[in-house]
Amino acid sequence: MVAAFAAAVLALSACAPASQEGWEPPAWAPEVVHATDPVPEISAAADGPLGAGIVPLRVRNDAVGLQARVALLPAGATTDAFNAQVEQFVRGAIADRVVASGTAFVPAPSAVGSGLGDRRCASGSTRRPAAELLADPAFGPVGGSGTAVVCGIVAAGGTIVGERVRVVSADPAGVRFDATTTLYTDVATGETAAADGLWTEDAAAALGAHIVEALRRDAGALSHRPVVVGDETQIAAIQAALGSTVPSDEGLVITLAPGFTAPDLAGLGAPATTEPIEFAIPAEVAADLVSPLGARVLASSGQPYTGPVAAPAGTRAVDCDLVPCVALTYDDGPSSYTPGILDELAARDAAATFFAMGQNAQGYADTLARMTREGHEVEGHTWNHPHLPQLTDAQVTAQVVDSTRALEAVSGQDITVFRPPYGEFTPRVLAAAGMPAILWDIDTLDWQGPADDVLIARAVEQPRAGSIVLLHDVHAVTARTAGAVLDGLFDRGFQLVTVRQLFGGELPTSGSWRRAP
């Protein structure tokens, strides 16, 4: 029996094929394009890579059902085109909401405690589920029905900036619109394009085989047969994915939307994709498929940002027909309290107007020069604060002219309007002054020495869009509460502007004004 078994084994061994010493199965060639993790958005905080290179814009309007945040760049010849395209997402959303709501859009502040002080892009907001985003009071419209516009910074290196903007709309029946656009600009040249414009015309077809091969391997295929991409539907899906391009350490990353399939995948019995899939395209592969702007975006990853920083807040163009504006004005100074108020303004990138007295100009020349340097507006408040109606025409003229000359000499600004002390004036006084008078519609009565919380409430709760608020930078309570007042106004959604900005960049040339028209 044993002998028979041994004979059988010998017979089978004789039939076995001869083996080659050192033979190994053929190895897969490395994947050219491969699935990867989503690329995190870049912090848009003031201490992030862009730092002062961002001018945040946030609009909330409950009347039409809108809340929007986008990031603009410092205004200039090479950034204006990018800014116009980004801002158009907000303006387009407003126009849609006006039609949907049947309500005209009028800039209006929100209630105290609305939490609108944070105006920068929030990392991750462009990727959140639509319903969740709309329900979040930090991003969505009140009640979740309306439109949300959110942003994310996806590139900030060298002179390249990339921003992803998402617009989501819903009505009581659910989400009805959800679209994301990624824009890139080179702030050195002004060239601006959507993400799919970073690629050549044949990039989608060239990348198609690589993407299908990656999916085919993931489905368990063992074939080395060349990939078949399929029809125009598959190419269109890949072309759409190019519109999501972001740079990364690996090269460029695109997101393929759910629902993609191809003949090679269907042949394996693999269903259409059900989740978004990120694909990394190595730099050496992408380099042959990108446009000149795309090449600069590709090279920007990992570089420090070297673009422009924002000018002082008081020198920027502000559209007070888009955002609710308010002008804080400080009278009677400068004084020893003024530098502290300037510190609070600087810390919050806010602007104000100082109606200074001529007799203080020489003693506070450095403070007045600082106001100009930091973008604040300096205007006149007469020489020594008299009751102007009690003076002769010549005395009124001297009060205004002497003050103007002294303030212009140390501030470097042109003084073109004045504030009459105590708000007292007559047509005769205006004629003798030779300048329009800027008054106020909100009086905080800080000169009476109210409690801190009382002063804060007056300055924060009373203003409406276009208001001019009266304060004095010669009182301790005013200086002590300055930061809280600024925070409270930002919280309501106000843009803090100078009087000149409140009037669209051009001050009145005659008359008297208590608020913006």
Write a structural description.
- It is a single chain.
- By secondary structure, the chain is of the alpha/beta class.
- It has 16 helices and 18 strands.
- It has helices at residues 2-15, 80-101, 130-135, 203-218, 232-242, 263-267, 283-286, 292-300, 338-347, 365-373, 393-411, 427-433, 452-461, 476-480, 482-491, 499-502; strands spanning 34-36, 55-61, 66-72, 146-157, 160-171, 174-186, 192-194, 246-248, 251-256, 277-282, 325-331, 353-356, 377-380, 437-438, 442-443, 467-472, 495-497, 512-513.
- The strands form 4 sheets. A 6-stranded mixed beta sheet has the order 2-3-4-5-6-7.
- β12, α10 and β13 form a beta-alpha-beta unit.
- α4 (203-218) crosses α5 (232-242).
- The longest helix is centred in the N-terminal third of the chain and has 22 residues, at 80-101.
- Mean pLDDT is 92; it is low at 1-14.
Features:
517 residues; disordered N terminus; 18 strands; alpha/beta; six-stranded parallel sheet; six-stranded mixed sheet; elongated; 31% helix
Break the fold down into its secondary structure elements and pairings:
Elements: H1 2-15, E1 34-36, E2 55-61, E3 66-72, H2 80-101, H3 130-135, E4 146-157, E5 160-171, E6 174-186, E7 192-194, H4 203-218, H5 232-242, E8 246-248, E9 251-256, H6 263-267, E10 277-282, H7 283-286, H8 292-300, E11 325-331, H9 338-347, E12 353-356, H10 365-373, E13 377-380, H11 393-411, H12 427-433, E14 437-438, E15 442-443, H13 452-461, E16 467-472, H14 476-480, H15 482-491, E17 495-497, H16 499-502, E18 512-513
Parallel strand pairs: 3-4, 11-12, 11-16, 11-17, 12-13, 14-18, 15-16
Antiparallel strand pairs: 1-10, 2-3, 4-5, 5-6, 6-7, 8-9, 9-10
Helix pairs in contact: 4-5, 11-12, 13-15
